[in-house]
Structure to design on (175 residues):
């Protein structure tokens, strides 16, 4: 059933990626986008990512699946590891959208306690629908839990969000 409210998702791409990497199953981003729409009435899903040209095909695919990508410039630490911290960008866009009354409710996809003040603000404005944690219960920040927002866990949605693409058989016909 289609929601009458306009809900928006703000997705911390790095947090989502790292959370699902810890799962023992293959995550399906297309199914996740549909699930956000069906479960929470999400019409617009902002996915915040570090801008890395080597992932341009992945980005194209995510856009085709219905995500609106917001890129953050990537910097590299001394070990050469990429860092594209988007926390402040998510907070600024969510606050701006809230003040401009661009949505009825929000879904935040992250387990990061840095978002607790944003969640508290959205609760005070009655504009928060849920937090979706990419990690298991024990790895979701206590700061988010203390806000008493409804939290769903991706790990609990395996039957819905697991990729169903089958492995191609090899030359012997064995998958």
């Amino acid at each position: 059933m289609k929601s009458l409210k306009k809900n928006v998702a703000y997705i911390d791409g790095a947090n989502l990626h790292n959370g699902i990497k810890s799962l023992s199953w293959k995550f399906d981003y297309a199914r996740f986008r549909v699930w956000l729409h069906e479960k929470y009435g999400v019409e617009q899903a902002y996915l915040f990512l570090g801008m890395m040209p080597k992932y341009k095909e992945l980005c194209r695919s995510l856009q085709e699946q219905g995500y609106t990508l917001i890129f953050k410039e990537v910097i590299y630490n001394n070990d050469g590891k990429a860092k594209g911290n988007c926390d402040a960008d998510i907070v600024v866009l969510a606050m701006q959208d809230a003040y401009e009354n661009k949505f009825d409710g929000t879904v935040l996809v992250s387990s990061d306690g840095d978002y607790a003040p944003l969640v508290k603000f959205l609760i005070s404005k009655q504009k928060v629908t849920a937090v979706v944690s990419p990690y298991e219960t024990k790895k979701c920040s206590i700061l988010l839990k203390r806000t008493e927002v409804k939290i769903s866990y991706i790990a609990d949605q395996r039957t819905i969000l697991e990729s169903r693409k089958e492995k191609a058989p090899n030359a012997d016909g064995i998958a």
